[in-house]
Design brief:
Blueprint: E1 14-18, H1 22-34, E2 38-41, H2 45-54, E3 59-63, H3 75-82, E4 92-97, H4 105-110, E5 115-118, H5 125-153
Parallel strand pairs: 1-2, 1-3, 3-4, 4-5
């Protein structure tokens, strides 16, 4: 089935990949499939933004140089960085590239993502995705618990 018609249902755990490097794309797909994610790939910046806006992806992997020669030309990443948090809170965002060390908090903060991963460590991608998702879930636990209570109580302050 074509990716454009690959629908996401309630029981799915969707993931979105935006890579220009075919070898990295294959590694990422394999790791996410092993973790049970329903994987969608974006071919262009506009395709990425369209997909990201249409589904609540749990995991988003984006290459630092996706469709670009420099990180500054990566329109998908720049759009994510400038997007209000409430529009991207549902996703754990991971940035993959050569210019940073894996799981450097300040580098992740600088790039407005949850974690950065050096491409030399893609062989550990499955474990790194699990760790990033667990860290993000722990960080947002209190927020999500309060949000759930508000929604189930039917009261709004």
């Amino acid at each position: 089935m074509n990716d454009a018609f690959d629908f996401v249902s309630n029981g799915d755990a969707p993931a979105l990949i935006a890579f220009s490097t075919p070898e990295w794309l294959d590694s990422a797909k394999a790791a996410l499939n092993e973790l049970g994610y329903k994987v969608h790939t974006a071919a262009t910046h506009s395709d990425f933004l369209l997909r990201f806006g249409q589904a609540h992806y749990q995991v988003v992997l984006i290459e630092e140089l996706f469709g670009a020669n420099t990180p500054g030309e990566n329109l998908a990443l720049k759009t994510l960085q400038n997007m209000p948090v409430n529009q991207r809170r549902h996703a754990t965002l991971l940035l993959i590239g050569d210019s940073f060390q894996t799981f450097t908090p300040m580098e992740a903060f600088k790039n407005s993502v949850h974690a950065v991963i050096n491409s030399s460590e893609l062989f550990l991608l499955k474990q790194l995705v699990e760790k990033a998702v667990a860290d993000n879930t722990t960080f947002l636990h209190s927020y999500r618990e309060v949000q759930h209570r508000v929604l189930t109580s039917g009261t709004r302050n």
